[in-house]
Structures are given as structure tokens and as C-alpha cells.
Amino acid sequence: MTKSKHSYHFKKSHFAFPYTIISIIFVIVPLLILVYYAFTDKYTGGFTLNNFSMFGEGSLWITLGISFLMAFLTTLICFLLAYPLAIALCKINANRRFILVMIFVLPMWINSLLRIYSVKLLFNDFLLIDRGFFLSLIGMVYDFFPFMLLPIYTILSQMNNSYFEASTDLGANPYKTFMKVKLPLSIPGIVSGVLMVFMPAVSTFAINDILGSSQYWLFGNEIYFWFQKGLYNIGSAFAFIMLVLILISVAISSALNKIVDPRSKSLKSRGETL
Amino acid sequence: MAEKTKVKEEAISENKKTKKENKNLVNKNLNKSKSLTTNNIDTKNNIITSQKENIENNEEVKDKAKKLDSIIKIKNVTKVFDGITVIDDLTLSIKRGKFVTLLGASGCGKTTLLRMIAGFETPTTGTIYIEEQEVTDIPPYKRPVNTVFQKYALFPHLNVFKNIAFGLKLKGLPEDLKKDIEKYKQEQKGLLSFFKVKNYARKLKNSYILEKVKKALKMVNLEGYGYRNINTLSGGQQQRVAIARAIVCEPKVLLLDEPLGALDLKMRKEMQIELMNIHKNLGITFVYVTHDQEEALTMSDEIVVLNDGVIQQIGTPKKIYDEPANAFVADFIGQSNILTGTMVKDFTLKFLGTTFECLDKGFDKNEPVDIVIRPEDIEVYPEGSTKGQLEGKVISSCFKGTFFQMEIETQGYEFTVQSTVEAKQNTKVKLGFTPNGIHVMRKLRSINEFVGRMTSPTTVEFCGGEWEVETKENEFEKGDEVKVKVGFRDIELMDDENDGVIGANVTQSLYKGEYNQVQIYTDTDEDFYVVTTDEWDMNDRVGVKIKPNAIILEKIIEEVEDETKEDD
User: Fold this and answer.
1) Is the Cβ pair B153, A160 closer than 8 Å?
2) Residue of A nearest to B214 (CA)
3) Could you tell me if residue A137 is inside a domain?
4) pTM score, whole prediction
5) Sequence-distant (≥ 6) Cβ neighbours of residue A210 within 8 angstroms
6) A/B interface, count of CB pairs below 8 Å
7) Burial of A87 (0-12, 13-18, 19+ CB in 10 A)
8) For residue A230, what is the DSSP state?
9) Of the CATH numbers 1.10.10.10, 2.40.50.140, 1.10.357.10, 1.10.443.10, which one belongs to the domain with range B448-567?
10) Fold (topology level) of B72-144+251-334
11) What is the CA A209 to chain-centroid distance, rounded?
12) What is the domain extent for residue A185?
């Protein structure tokens, strides 16, 4: 038995190699290109901030506002629909529950564009409702709903019943038990649900293209427009702004998550010792 | 019920006693007043004071009666889960201020009983009273009890302080603080008074809660841990937080559901002592659920032994250990030798072919009985000694620190003996039994009894099976309700369930000398007792077979049923 033959040891971290390569090619490099384009002139290739000059105009901010309003409403409606549903699903016995969860998750397996076209058909041809802001909203809620439901359902179904028993035992009625125990404990699920819905909703343009009215644009439409025109530098600048805004909202959500996470230090800091 | 009246009687008799004493005092004083006419006024005063004392004494007696009163009453409670009876018509009262343990193997219904007291389960039938108030259908948050859960159930999103303060924040402030706020409210005038009062009340409540939590932390020896996070604590520390969280609410009864089950042995021993101290300091009633008989014997004022949702015995640890009510309790509590014998007459008992003296009486002549002898109650003498009644051979001997544990065979029965005197393996010894070391118990049941229905003149249905029986001609008709009796020895158990008429699970197997007494549980929720020489293990699945001529049938006549109803 010679050791030299087996000198190469396969480590667990080596399994990450394929994906690392993919992410370098499709995520890191494009991001660098995007940043490069955003800050350079189309013709000279030198550094410039001119690509951002469009943001001086008010109309662009309105577009941005509409995008965030749309994403916010989508997230809110999804949450209001998903949370009670997740609670109800947890109360159903295990066999039937699986089937019901499947029914809600099933649409995820169908291409989202196909689903949006079917919504369009349903509303335009059968219900004779024309495209517009609210139809677009309905389409987005329909499209992103499973992404809100799944994380909330997962966290609620794993929650130990003894917490609620302890709460009622200590004198909390069902409402207080919900507010003081169930809701705080489900915040990690809510946060990931919100992220999963808000992020794609704020940058979408396809749904709005199909269902929305032509009177307004979303930020996603704007980015799409510039790239389509071949003005990559301006498009990149727009995409860069979107990226920053998304990063800010992620930072806010994770800060929110930290407040309720028991492992965070924020709970500890108090002058007094007990 | 009987216990309650007993308590009352005690209280009354004490009351009478003090009255008598006071009367004597008054008489004495009267005598004094006769003899000492000059001190007339003084003596009158004396009489008055003594009368006052009398009143005070009466109140004391009342207080005492209240203390001895039962705080929880459970009346005819039955709980059925998915067709399985977990608690069977159970009646129990728990005395104020006691440390009461519900003891039983897993699945005996002890936790269900506790959860019904806490309010997490509602009884299928029956009623539960706490402090004379019916709470059967009252939700947990309105009951004056708090629970320490088996797996702590501490809120992971709150730190130690907030966990303990959880119940306090929900509770209202005590009366004196409310008055304080009211006073402050009247003093305040002007636009901002509303906010000022709010602020004042908030501050007062916070300091009140802080004070309370500090006290609770001190009680469970966790000072300085207030702002720690729950997941940074060890199991023992989490347990303490759980206890603090419950006691800080000042419940009238503290319910503990196997609170020490998840701790290691050393930690468990420490917590046992701490829990006993907490109980002593608080003076409230503890209801403690455990399957650990040693824990129960160490900690409790009173033990309730449960099996299959039925109370087997209630008593002090000493009583339960020394005088087990039946073979189940004897087997469950401590090590014991269980034999079968016959009661020849009062104070005389016969087992293993030898007659012994005992302290029991009131049995029928030659009534078969169960006998329990604790391993430490058997004396070991060398061979040929004049002391000792039985001769035996040492099968094995093992040193256990403070004593030797020996297996000694006598006429086919293996006694477990604990003695400070060692007897070597394979030597012959004599075993000595003293009258107070022999505990005689009525047999739980001498025959299996069921209610069945004739499916034809020669077949009867009971316990979910159809059995062939030997009957006289025209004795029974199809559809007759019958009482079925089967002797312990007439039941045959089969390895293969399909060989028997019905299938059943072995729930208990007791070795009783020459034979095993096996208890089996049918799918229709009924018990069979079987005496067999074969050995069966718990949870074995067996087939049950009974010879046709061994099934005794009795027709149930409706009149008889009516009579029994009236008797009830």
C-alpha cells in the first residue's frame, strides 16, 4: 500500500466547482460588464456619469414609483392571501394537506409566460376586461403567489405546538397567542416570502407588457426598452440603479429578520444585569 | 369523596377539641372569679380574652380545614382518543399544598390527565373542578394553573427575562399598584395628564415585573442570566427558566409534565432536590407526572399510581412501597418478589408449601392471594440454621455497593434478595421471612368476565370474536345477551395470531413462581388475564384460544339489570 497513489484527496468543497464556474460566467462577469457599461461613454469608452442623466427627469421617477407600488401591492396581497391559507393548511390532516399544497404549487411547474397569456385570454376574451394596472396586478399576484405561500407554510408547519400551549397556559388568549408567539416566530418565513415575491415583481416587465396598459411603464419595461434600442450604456445604468435598490431592500429585510432572530445580539444589549 | 369527608371530620373534631379546651379555661376563670371576688373585673377581662382566643382558634381551625381541603377534583372523567380509552372513569381529588405525583408507565394516561387539568384536552365525559369551580370546558388561559412542559417549550424569539415576564405582562397589576395609579391619576391635571398617567402606569408595571422576574430567577438559581438567549442555555438551565416562567405567575397549582425527563442523571438528582425546595418555599400544590418510580418516591407527598387510565393506588410513598395495593403496583414500584398463596385464616398464610405468619386479616378462608415480598425484607441464614423457614440455593450473587443482590431458588421460585450478608454462589441457604415483610393483597381478578351475545345456540360473540361453546339443548337462543366467564388457566395463547379466535397484545407479564400471569389486551379494548407456564414479553402479538367447555355462560335477565341500576 503506497500512499503516493492516493495523494489527491477529494474534498467536499470540490463539489461546488461546477456551479462556481457557471456563476462566474453567468453572474459575476455579466455584473462586471454591467457596471462597466453603466459608467462608460458609448463612443469614447471613457468614464462618464452621463448615462444617469435621465434620472434628472421626473417621468423616470414616476416609472420607478409605479414599479415599486406595483411590487409592494403584489407582495402585500400575496401575503394577506398566503398567511391565512398557510395556517389553514397546517390544520388539515397530513394526507389531504399534501394534495392541497400541491394544488397551490402546481402552477409553478408551468412556464410563467404561458400562464400570463392564459390569464390574458381569460380576462380579455371571456370576461371582456381590458388590459390595465389592476389586471397587471392580478397577473402578478397569480404568478408570484406560490413563492409567498411555500416559505410561510414551511415555517408554520414545522412550528412546535407546545409554544402555543405554553402561551395559552401563561394566560394569553388565542389572539394574543397569535400576536405574541405565532406571528413573531413565523417572521423568517414571511421575510423570505416577501423577498421571493418583491424582487422579481419590482423588476418584471413581461407581465405588464401582456396585461398592463400602454399608458404607463414599469422600470423593467424601461430597461428592456434601452437594451432593445442598442443603447447598452444607458440600459446598464438603469439596471445598475435597479440593482442598488434591490440590494437596499434585501438589507432592510435581513435587518428585520435579525431583530426577531433569537441568535442576534440586539436582544442582549441592556445596561442592567439580571 | 370519602377522603373529603374524612378531612372534614378531622377539622370538626379539632374544632370541638379547642372548644372544649376553651370551656375549661372559662370554667377555670369562673372558679377564679368566685374565689377572688376582689379581682372581679380582672377575671371578667380574662373571660373576654379567652373568648376572643376561642374565636381566633376557630378561625385557625377553619384555615386548617381549608388547607386540608382538596384544590382539584376530578369526577368520573373518561377520555377517549380515536376510539381508545385513555382515561377510564377516573375520580381523584388533590389536596391543597401537596406534592402529588401521577406515576405510571408510558401510555397509562398520566399526561392526558395532567393536560386535562391544564385545559389542553377536554374530557369526553366527566367534570373537573379547581377551587370548587367547574373548569371542564374553560380554556387554559382562564385557569389558575401553570404548566412546566416536558420539552420546556420556551419561546425561542424571547430572551430569558422576556420568557419569564410573558405571563406577568398578560396578567393585570396587583390591587395596591392599581390603587397607586388611580391616586396618581387624580393628582394629575392638564392636557398631558392622560399621557402622564399612561407613562406612570407603564413605569410602575415595568418595575413590578422586573422585581418579580428577579425573584423568580433567584428562586431557580439563575441570577445574572436574565438577558441571555434561550438557545445559549444548557438543558438544566432551560428547565429552570421553564419553572421560573410558570411560578412567576403565582398559580394555585403547578403542573409538571415529566420536567426532568430530558436531563442526565446527576442533573436530575439536583433538580429533584431543588424542585422539592421550591415546593416547600411556595407552598402551592404541585402535580407532577413521571414514569420514574424512584423520582416519585423521593419527591412526593402523595403518589397516584395509574395503569391503563385507571388508578391502582393512592398513598404516601411509604405506603405505596410498603403496602402495595395489588400486584401491579408492587411490580411497578421497586423490586419485588410476587407469589401466589392462600390465606389459611386471619394472620396465617401459605405459600410454597409452607405456612407463614402475617399481619393481614379479613380475607375469606383459603382465599387465593397475591403476596409481595421486597428483596430487602428477606433474611439469609447459612444452611442448617434454626432460623429461616425456606431452604434455597444461591443462583447468583452480585455486589451492589452497599448490599449483595442474590437470586435464590426455592422450589422452582427464584427470589431476588438484597442482603448485607453475602452467600456464595451454589451454596445452600435458609431464607427467613418476618410477618411485617410479607404483604398480602387480594387478587385483582379471579376470573375473566365479559358481556357477549349468542350468535347461534352453540356459538357466542365477545371481545370481537366468535367462540364455540358447549351448551345444553335449548339453553340459549340466537341473540341472547350473556355474561361470559373464563378462568385464567383455561385460556391458551398462540404464537401465531391466526391460530387463535382473536388477536391480542400482551400488556403485562408477571412471574409468579410456578407460572406467569399474563395480561393481554384485545382489539376491542378489553383485558384478559391468563395464567400460563409459557413466557411472553410485553407487546407480543398473540392469538387467543379457549376450549369450548371452559367458557361459562350466564344469561343476563333484564330484571337483574334493573336491580343493579337501582343499587347504583
Assistant:
1) yes
2) A274
3) yes
4) 0.69
5) A113, A116, A117, A120, A131, A139
6) 92
7) middle
8) T
9) 2.40.50.140
10) Rossmann fold (3.40.50)
11) 20
12) 58-259
Distance CA B257, CA A162 (A): 12
Closest CB to B159: pick one of A176, A184, A267: A267
Contact B343, B363 (CB under 8 A): yes
- pLDDT per position as a tens digit, B498-531: 888 888 888 777 777 667 788 888 888 777 888 8
- Asked if ipTM goes beyond 0.85, one says no
Q: Which domain CATH number covers A221?
A: 1.10.3720.10
- CA of B147 vs chain A CAs: smallest distance (Å): 7
| Domain positions in chain B | 2-68, 72-144+251-334, 158-233, 335-442, 448-567
Residue with cell 406515576: B103
Is residue A270, in this structure, part of any structural domain at all? no
Angle at B333 between CA B324 and CA B486, to 5 degrees: 60
Q: Each residue of B93-135: pLDDT tens digit?
A: 898 999 999 999 888 889 999 999 999 999 999 999 998 889 9
Contact call for B231 and A170, based on CB within 8 A? no
Sign of CA dihedral A258, A263, A269, A272: positive
Cα nearest neighbour of A185 on chain B: B157
Write out chain B residues lying below 8 Å of A178, CB-based: none
Q: Whole-angstrom Cα distance, residue B100 to residue B301?
A: 6
DSSP per-residue letters across B297-365: HHH-SEEEEEETTEEEEEE-HHHHHHS-SSHHHHHHSS--EEEEEEEEETTEEEETTEEEE-S---PPT
